[in-house]
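Escalated from tier 1: uridine-diphosphate-N-acetylglucosamine holo job.
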Amino acid sequence: MEKLRIMSVFGTRPEAIKMAPLVKELKSREEIESLCCVTAQHRQMLDSVMEVFDLKADCDLDIMTPRQTLSTITSKCLLGMDGAIEQLKPDMILVHGDTSTTFAGALSAFYHQVPVGHVEAGLRTYDKYSPFPEEMNRKMVTAIADLYFCPTKNNRDNLQREGIDKGVFITGNTVIDALKTTVRSDYVFATQELNELDYENRKIVLVTCHRRENYGEPMKNIMLALRQIAEQNEDVELVYPVHLSPVVREAVDAYLRGAPRVHLIDPLAADEMHNLMARCYLVLTDSGGLQEEAPALGKPVLVMRRETERPEAVDAGTVKLCGVVQDDIVTMAERLIRDKSAYEKMAHAVNPYGDGNACARIADAILWHFGRRSERPADFEV
Ligand code: UD1
Ligand code: UDP
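Tier 2 regenerated the structure:
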């Protein structure tokens, strides 16, 4: 029997980190030819992930431009995907999550009548503009997809409420699979500055921030809050690998650079980032992926957003929304820095997002869908 040609499409850092273990799992299955098409919506940050996970692209659309707009990303991806699909002739296309690459990848698959599997399906805030444009991207991909790989039961329930009940699997999030390969207790950082931090006696606060809906006033508030936290707390060190987006870098330069006890560094390779997270005290972020990774590592997270599509770790008590108002961020962060019992209540490892076997379930589900397995894989249960 001919091998199934399964083409994974991704382009940004988080998609790559979460798809890397899946590309490898598919490669390990003898019935599958695992193909990899990168849009390179992110250039440097994608290449870094490809290197860490030792991945090679079969096709690279190389679309990134500085300060790219949503329309540019989507149209360049769509045009590039025509050639990729003609060249690689996939039987199924896998897209991940909610980026513009994800939406354009799914739309192009539809135009070519290639079935679509959506990895990390069913996340919702039900607010069209927050996160922007991600909430609409994932809803539009839901309309196109044939198979849905939901990380959690809650994600499956969201789809059910929208009338989607065919081809839906609860698999866990592939990010937990990735984390299992990167975090090690004896890890030595390639970034010397990270080896020199005093993890025992200082409170290392790991920070990231990049969301489009936070551009402007909210990002200014976030930067000023970070400055205030660093200035007011002598036992704290903020470590902030700054996203390469010029909009983010401008906000950092205008409002945060020069504050005491703030380490502004370039984006970290995924293995560096995961091991730093494993050793830090607290995470302050507006990232999606960090909301999944930090709880698995027992680290409290304050989410600098007004909503989250990831309520599971909030329910488990390790993640709290602190919004985007300067005073609120400072108050909630200082509580965790000063109040030991408030900190201990949040600092426990929970894994609502997966058990590290999401990729195996997804591969089994694909084989079952194509009639190459007699049994449907069992759903992931917490
Ligand atoms: C994108 C995704 C967002 C995801 C985030 C992860 C969309 C619309 N947004 O947002 O959902 O959470 O990635 O980080 O899909 N840049 C570089 N080098 C890089 C990466 C980015 O120079 O390796 C700069 C470029 O100037 C680029 C800009 O950052 O134009 C913004 O990148 P873009 O992908 O448009 O937006 P993100 O905020 O990264
Ligand atoms: N990450 C990384 N290096 C960094 C910052 C983040 O490898 O300097 C990883 C992080 O551990 C997570 C992913 O990138 O796996 C999250 O990406 P990002 O926050 O850019 O996007 P989001 O998850 O919000 O879509």
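Residues 12-14, 41-45, 66-68, 70, 73, 98-100, 133-134, 210, 212, 244-246 surround uridine-diphosphate-N-acetylglucosamine (ligand 1) (CB under 6 Å).
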